[in-house]
Specification:
Elements lengths: L2 H19 L4 E9 L6 H12 L8 E7 L1 E5 L4 E5 L14 E5 L3 E8 L1
Parallel strand pairs: 1-2
Antiparallel strand pairs: 1-6, 3-4, 3-5
């Protein structure tokens, strides 16, 4: 489960920012996760509470904003929404798609004290 490793990396980033920005507690963490990022959101939610124990984000509320996967369809010449990386174009059924969005995973906001 690589979500635990992702949570560990989030913790490291938050702890670094706590030292740099001089805050002692995180009340809320907002993550933006794309549909094509390969992150299992429920596993990340579970791992978050476990990994954050004992740090500045212990007990922090986790909000996740999920973004759609998007791709440019070459035959249609339009951007379409896709649920998975190898889905066909919902308009024409073509597989000639170039992914343009939905692969991101980033810390969007921290609410700190």
């Amino acid at each position: 489960m690589h979500e635990m490793a992702i949570c560990e990396n989030i913790r490291v980033l938050i702890e670094e920012q706590a030292r740099t920005q001089n805050f002692s507690r995180v009340e809320r963490v907002c993550l933006e996760i794309g549909a094509l990022s390969g992150v299992e959101v429920e596993a990340l939610r579970f791992g978050f509470d476990v990994v954050m124990r004992g740090g500045v984000a212990a007990g922090a509320r986790l909000d996740i904003v999920e973004t759609a996967g998007t791709a440019w369809c070459l035959p249609c010449a339009v951007t379409v929404t896709i649920g998975r990386r190898y889905d066909p174009c919902p308009r024409c059924g073509s597989h000639q798609l170039q992914v343009t969005g939905g692969e991101e995973m980033k810390i969007r906001e921290l609410e700190v004290m």
